[in-house]
Amino acid sequence: MPSLKELIRNADDIQVQDDVEIPEWAPGVMFRVTGLPSGDWEAYQNKVSKMTRQDKADGMEMSIRSNRAEIVAKALRDQETDELVFPDLREGISILSKRQAGIVTGLFVLVHHLSGEDRDFKQKVAAAESDFGSGQS
């Protein structure tokens, strides 16, 4: 029987959303959007927290947008191949930072949801207990 550490290491707990269409970018093409691991969210939150302590209000909005673009670039995949659309993260951030804010924000919200960041602790525990009881990971 595997150890608890091995069970955690091998858990398939990152949610995925297939069939995401972005007709403004690629009509008829379906994307896969994945949730992100906690390390990516902690890095994002640390950047946002650091920016809110700065007095430069002008640069803050652009930095938050590029951080959202970073999250989306890390989560947007080709549904057919499961490859990242932007394997070069810097290039992805640069491209997404120049796209419509509403689309990037919508994708960001989806990644936020798939990562479980839109639920409080009690909701996360209830979801985990439900998944455990049904034999899903």
What does this structure look like?
The chain starts with a helix and ends with a helix. It has helices spanning 4-10, 38-52, 57-75, 89-96, 101-114, 121-133, and strands at residues 16-21, 30-34, 76-78. A three-stranded antiparallel β-sheet has the order 1-2-3. Helix 2 (38-52) runs antiparallel to helix 3 (57-75), helix 3 packs across helix 4 and helix 3 crosses helix 5. It has a single domain (4-131), classed as Phage tail assembly chaperone gp13-like (rbstp2171, 2-Layer Sandwich). The chain is globular and about 45 Å long. By secondary structure, it is mainly alpha-helical.
Keywords:
137 residues; mainly alpha
- Can you summarize the main beta sheet? 3 strands, antiparallel
> What is the CATH superfamily classification?
Phage tail assembly chaperone gp13-like
CATH architecture: 2-Layer Sandwich
Q: H/E order of the elements? A: HEEHHEHHH
Question: What structural class do you assign from the helix and strand content?
Answer: mainly alpha
Which consecutive residue ranges, at least 5 long each, have pLDDT under 50?
Answer: none
User: For the terminal residues, how far apart are their CA atoms?
Assistant: 17 Å
User: Overall 3D geometry?
Assistant: globular
- The amount of beta strand, in percent, is 5-15%
The tally of strands reads 3
Provide the CATH topology. rbstp2171
SS summary, helix count: 6
CATH class: Alpha Beta
Question: How many domains in all?
Answer: 1
